[in-house]
């Protein structure tokens, strides 16, 4: 597939169903300022396809194979942090939305989203904003538990944040080093800095502090955008 002209948002499409991939190609190519690039393919080939296509954004199908898809999203975020990830999902569950956002998804849309909404979501995700499909039921503020956000007095560096993400997934120092392409000794240094900044006794305590500080329900109306706000 031909490369996109300069100034055009390059979008790679990842979905297991060929009919969905074909439909998404049409939606993207018919949206002004966007073009489908690379070879649309299955999620199991995500890293290979992103590596070859070098897109600005990736649209993924988030359906029945959610755990594997979210792992692919984490891998994309880790290897290609500048690539915006947009999920087309089948679940309206706020907990699933939060899980996807935590995995690196920037925009979460229902599978039947219009081409216009998809285009808005892609542009917003590239700008670092979050879009949650307006079809998804909003959680009333009174229903959401009050949670104090965990904010270290000394902010974590970008690399420390990457290491913390790995800790939350239960990875060992050796595996973290492999995933982030750094030495095991460097990982240990980052872990010590994270524990110090969070005031945590050990790794388990750090993970507990972070997870307890994260709101378990989707606050779609607080930080997310609707098309009208873009």
Automatic annotation (TrEMBL):
<keyword id="KW-0238">DNA-binding</keyword>
<dbReference type="InterPro" id="IPR058245">
    <property type="entry name" value="NreC/VraR/RcsB-like_REC"/>
</dbReference>
<dbReference type="InterPro" id="IPR016032">
    <property type="entry name" value="Sig_transdc_resp-reg_C-effctor"/>
</dbReference>
<dbReference type="InterPro" id="IPR000792">
    <property type="entry name" value="Tscrpt_reg_LuxR_C"/>
</dbReference>
<dbReference type="Pfam" id="PF00196">
    <property type="entry name" value="GerE"/>
</dbReference>
<dbReference type="InterPro" id="IPR001789">
    <property type="entry name" value="Sig_transdc_resp-reg_receiver"/>
</dbReference>
<keyword id="KW-0597">Phosphoprotein</keyword>
<dbReference type="GO" id="GO:0006355">
    <property type="term" value="P:regulation of DNA-templated transcription"/>
</dbReference>
<feature type="domain" description="Response regulatory">
    <location>
        <begin position="10"/>
        <end position="126"/>
    </location>
</feature>
<dbReference type="GO" id="GO:0003677">
    <property type="term" value="F:DNA binding"/>
</dbReference>
<dbReference type="InterPro" id="IPR011006">
    <property type="entry name" value="CheY-like_superfamily"/>
</dbReference>
<feature type="domain" description="HTH luxR-type">
    <location>
        <begin position="149"/>
        <end position="214"/>
    </location>
</feature>
<dbReference type="InterPro" id="IPR051015">
    <property type="entry name" value="EvgA-like"/>
</dbReference>
<dbReference type="Pfam" id="PF00072">
    <property type="entry name" value="Response_reg"/>
</dbReference>
<protein>
    <submittedName>
        <fullName>Response regulator transcription factor</fullName>
    </submittedName>
</protein>
<dbReference type="GO" id="GO:0000160">
    <property type="term" value="P:phosphorelay signal transduction system"/>
</dbReference>
């Amino acid at each position: 597939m031909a490369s996109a002209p300069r100034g055009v948002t390059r979008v790679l499409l990842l979905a297991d169903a060929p009919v969905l991939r074909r439909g998404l190609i049409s939606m993207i190519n018919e949206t002004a300022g966007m073009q489908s690039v690379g070879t649309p393919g299955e999620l199991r080939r995500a890293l290979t396809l992103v590596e070859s296509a070098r897109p600005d954004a990736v649209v993924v199908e988030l359906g029945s194979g959610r755990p594997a898809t979210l792992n692919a999203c984490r891998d994309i975020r880790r290897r290609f942090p500048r690539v915006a990830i947009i999920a087309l999902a089948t679940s309206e569950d706020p907990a699933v939305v939060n899980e996807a956002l935590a995995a690196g998804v920037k925009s979460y849309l229902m599978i039947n989203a219009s081409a216009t909404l998809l285009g808005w979501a892609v542009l917003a995700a590239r700008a670092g904003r979050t879009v949650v499909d307006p079809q998804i039921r909003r959680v009333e503020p009174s229903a959401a538990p009050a949670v104090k956000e965990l904010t270290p007095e000394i902010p974590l560096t970008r690399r420390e944040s990457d290491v913390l993400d790995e800790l939350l997934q239960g990875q060992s120092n050796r595996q973290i080093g492999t995933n982030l392409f750094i030495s095991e000794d460097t990982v240990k240094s980052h872990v010590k800095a994270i524990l110090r900044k969070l005031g945590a006794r050990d790794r388990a305590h750090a993970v507990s502090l972070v997870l307890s500080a994260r709101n378990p329900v989707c606050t779609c109306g607080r930080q997310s955008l609707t098309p009208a706000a873009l």
